[in-house]
């Protein structure tokens, strides 16, 4: 890692996980294998910010710990990249095992418990809504096609629509990296204060 940490993919230690490395990597990993419109790639960091905004607007999405889980749901991809779902399924348990171990180390590093089943469903729902929006707005899918793959997105509260629209624009890597870090720091600070 650029921080100087050496991360063992098969036995990751939370001591080797740095948020700066996560933000740097996720801001440079393209969603949709780079097949999106816009001057810049739409990165996993942007997707993570989008999922956090959507999930935070859904019932059960309040609280800094849940919001951190939403923001970090794809954090292992800073090391292993964003692999499309059909390929993940073909690779199977080997990929999922590495991903689970990395996510576990990331959670331990940032003092997060594994999400409850209800929180896990919230994260999955927000992720699918984000994927639908990205597919139709950035990756050239029709509404019908996106609906087949990701389901129809639920209506979101009016207050979050403007934020979602702002997040659905590809942006320069350095800007995205900083936005991700800033959001993480705000949530991590709130999470620490809540735990005291």
From TrEMBL:
<dbReference type="Pfam" id="PF12917">
    <property type="entry name" value="YfbR-like"/>
</dbReference>
<keyword id="KW-0378">Hydrolase</keyword>
<dbReference type="GO" id="GO:0016787">
    <property type="term" value="F:hydrolase activity"/>
</dbReference>
<protein>
    <submittedName>
        <fullName>Hydrolase</fullName>
    </submittedName>
</protein>
């Amino acid at each position: 890692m650029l921080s100087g940490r050496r991360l063992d993919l098969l036995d990751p230690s939370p001591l080797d996980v740095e948020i700066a490395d996560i933000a740097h990597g996720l801001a440079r990993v393209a969603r949709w294998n780079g097949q999106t419109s816009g001057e810049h790639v739409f990165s996993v960091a942007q997707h993570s910010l989008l999922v956090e905004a959507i999930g935070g607007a859904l019932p059960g999405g309040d609280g800094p710990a849940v919001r951190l889980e939403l923001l970090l749901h794809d954090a292992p991809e800073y090391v292993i990249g964003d692999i499309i779902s059909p390929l993940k399924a073909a690779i199977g348990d080997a990929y999922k095992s590495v991903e689970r171990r990395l996510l576990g180390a990331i959670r331990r590093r940032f003092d997060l418990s594994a999400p409850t089943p209800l929180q896990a469903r919230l994260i999955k729902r927000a992720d699918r809504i984000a994927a639908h929006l990205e597919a139709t707005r950035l990756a050239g899918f029709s509404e019908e096609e996106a609906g087949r793959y990701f389901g129809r997105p639920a209506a979101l509260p009016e207050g979050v629509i403007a934020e979602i629209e702002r997040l659905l624009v590809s942006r320069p890597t350095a800007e995205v990296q900083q936005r991700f870090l800033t959001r993480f720091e705000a949530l991590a600070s709130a999470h620490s204060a809540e735990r005291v």
